[in-house]
Amino acid sequence: MPDLQLAAPDGGKFTGYLALPKKTPAPGVLVIQEIFGVNAVMRGICDELAGLGYLALCPDIFWRQQPGIQITDKTDAEWQRAFELYKGFDPDLGIGDLKASLATLRSHPACSGKAGTVGYCLGGFLVYMMAVRSDADANVSFYGVGIDGKLTESKSIAKPLLMHIAEKDQFVPSAAQASIRSALASHRQVTIHVYPGQDHAFARIGGKHYHKASADQANARTAAFFKQHLG
User: Fold this and answer.
1) What are the structural domain ranges in the chain?
2) What values do phi and psi take at 123, rounded to 5?
3) Could you give phi then psi for residue 48, rounded to 5 degrees?
4) What is the third-level CATH fold of 3-230?
5) For the range 40-44, what are the long-range contacts, defined as Cβ-Cβ under 8 Å and sequence gap of 24 or more?
6) Can you tell me the distance from the alpha carbon of 24 to that of 112, in angstroms, rounded to the nearest whole number?
7) Which of 171, 170, 165, 173 is CA-nearest to residue 141?
8) 30, 57 in Cβ contact below 8 A?
9) Which is nearest to 110 in space by CA: 24, 46, 30, 27?
10) How confident is the model at residue 2 (pLDDT cuts 50, 70, 90)?
11) How would DSSP label each residue in 98-162?
């Protein structure tokens, strides 16, 4: 499907991959990328969400460094580039771009006006930040990296947040996971599921740590969550 043109709060322009459901108007889901850009995996997630009846948009959050990044997790060179982009990413500017993308998604003629977020890895962290700093109607974080450093902001979460945590996540140590679970355990808007024995990116089809049973369970929980909170 053609990319959607998006406008940043500071006047810049960027794009996002948009997948349309068969029946509209429909609720929207903002899909927030991993460190590999708006690649085939992210576009596939958008297409799957469209198949479930959602208007799905994945914005290019690396556009300030290099527009149009679409790399994989298959080579050392691609991993190196992905980590360079991750290190060069400004989360505050990125959240501004995501909030603008959410507003654009909500105002799309095919959108019902309700919209949530889902994100993976870096995107999982940004989903948490969108739950904290935006008015997204429902948010789903897959193995977000760095959330433990932003737990003091959790009091601002006002809409439902579902979190999928990999027990053996190489990028989220057990101490960080314990901090997250302790800080959010009693938060009425937050639901946390831990996937025993699973490593980072267990839901990335084709990835080194893909685990079908855990991915299917997490995706089913996500689908039920969006159905409940987005309609």
Assistant:
1) 3-230
2) -60, -30
3) -65, -40
4) Rossmann fold (3.40.50)
5) 40/70, 40/72, 41/204, 41/205, 41/206, 42/17, 43/17, 43/19, 44/205
6) 8
7) 165
8) yes
9) 24
10) low
11) HHHHHHHHHHSTTEEEEEEEEEETHHHHHHHHHHHHS--S-EEEES-SSGGGGGGGGGG--S-EE
The single residue listed with the structure tokens 């977000």 is 144
Active site residue 108: no
The active-site residue out of 164, 169, 199, 211 is 169
Q: pLDDT-derived band of residue 166, with 50, 70 and 90 as boundaries?
A: very high
What is the dihedral sign for C-alpha 89, 215, 172, 139?
A: positive
Mean pLDDT of 124-128: 98
200 has catalytic annotation: yes
* pLDDT at 50 exceeding the cut of 60: yes
Query: Among the options 108, 164, 200, 211, which is catalytic?
Result: 200
pTM: predicted TM-score of the whole model, two decimal places = 0.98
Report the Cα 124 to chain-centroid distance in Å: 5
Task: Indicate the pairing of strand 13-19 with strand 55-59.
Answer: antiparallel
The SS3 assignment for 215 reads: helix
pLDDT of residue 231: 86
Q: What is the pLDDT of residues 62-88, one digit of tens each?
A: 999 999 999 999 999 999 999 999 999
Q: Which residue in the block uniquely carries the two structure tokens 């990116």?
A: 201
What's the rounded Cα separation, in Å, for the pair 8 and 144? 24
pLDDT at 162 over 60: yes
User: Which H helix or E strand runs over 31?
Assistant: strand 26-32
